[in-house]
């Protein structure tokens, strides 16, 4: 079998394993939907905006949860899963087989792409049918959603593969990864409106991809009048592509430099 065929076989295995693990399923796949439900229930009577563009808090938090889903499905899921596979000897076993590393990466990234897509569709469906969120009708916005999602999930997936080299063991992976991602979510406008954060926090967040992914998602789901709340009073989708694409390259390079079937310090 060639490299791509082996990657597809790995993809099937990864998806089956993913949906069999309750903790991964709860804290990555269902977490954005649960958080959207909590925010919608807690602020059901509140709205944001002015005039005809006034929207519910459910609508406002939808793009934030969509961006967080990319981070969780890509960075958190892969960083913890690969660190655990290094610790329990799975990667050492795979290293003794003819499986090329590229096929392993294809399996990981494609499974994140597919599960992330299902997560996003489910998130949008729940927000619309359960919480009454009005979805955009302009086809161009869904084209923007497509490239933001694909670019975002690939960048986050590669960063997750690179981050998996940091934890010293599988047991410490959760303690290493989750606090970092929680910090990024708070400074990137996922749980708090980005425009209300201190300027130094906004500046710090602008160096990382999550802030730009959330901004890109807001351009899809929020009325154009809300661009006035963004830095520069514009959606800046070209900058979203530039920054997230840059992090994709960074993740690719770091993964290439750090990935080993067996830890050097093992």
UniProtKB/TrEMBL annotation:
It is found in: Cell membrane; Membrane. GO terms for cellular component: ATP-binding cassette (ABC) transporter complex. InterPro entries: ABC2_TM, ABC2_TM_bact-type, ABC_2_transport, Nod_factor_ABC_transporter. Keywords: Antibiotic resistance, Cell membrane, Membrane, Transmembrane, Transmembrane helix, Transport. It comes from the Bacteria. Residues 23-265 form the ABC transmembrane type-2 domain. Coiled coil: none annotated. Pfam families: ABC2_membrane. It is a multi-pass membrane protein. One of its GO terms (biological process) is response to antibiotic. One of its GO terms (molecular function) is ABC-type transporter activity. The chain crosses the membrane at residues 21-40, 60-83, 113-133, 145-166, 173-194, 240-259. Belongs to the ABC-2 integral membrane protein family. This is Transport permease protein. It comes from Gryllotalpicola protaetiae.
């Amino acid at each position: 079998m060639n490299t791509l065929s082996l990657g597809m076989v790995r993809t099937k295995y990864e998806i089956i394993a993913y949906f069999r693990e309750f903790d991964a399923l709860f804290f990555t796949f269902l977490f954005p939907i649960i958080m959207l439900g909590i925010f919608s229930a807690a602020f059901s009577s509140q709205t944001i905006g002015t005039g005809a563009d006034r929207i519910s808090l459910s609508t406002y938090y939808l793009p934030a949860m969509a961006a967080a889903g990319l981070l969780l499905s890509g960075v958190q899921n892969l960083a913890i899963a690969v660190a655990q596979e290094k610790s329990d000897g799975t990667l050492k076993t795979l290293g003794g087989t003819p499986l090329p590393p590229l096929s392993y990466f294809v399996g990981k990234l494609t499974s994140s792409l597919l599960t992330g897509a299902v997560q996003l569709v489910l998130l949008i469906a729940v927000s619309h049918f359960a919480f009454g969120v009005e979805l955009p009708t302009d086809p161009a916005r869904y084209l923007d959603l497509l490239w933001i999602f694909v670019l975002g999930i690939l960048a986050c997936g590669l960063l997750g593969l690179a981050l998996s080299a940091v934890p010293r063991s599988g047991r410490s992976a959760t303690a290493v990864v989750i606090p970092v991602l929680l910090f990024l979510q708070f400074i990137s406008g996922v749980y708090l409106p980005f425009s209300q954060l201190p300027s130094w926090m906004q500046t710090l967040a602008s160096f990382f991809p999550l802030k730009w992914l959330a901004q890109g998602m807001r351009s899809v789901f929020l009325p154009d009048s809300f661009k006035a709340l963004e830095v520069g009073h514009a959606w800046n989708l070209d900058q979203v592509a530039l920054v997230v694409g840059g992090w994709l390259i960074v993740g690719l390079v770091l993964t290439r430099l750090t990935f080993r079937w067996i830890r050097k310090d093992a």
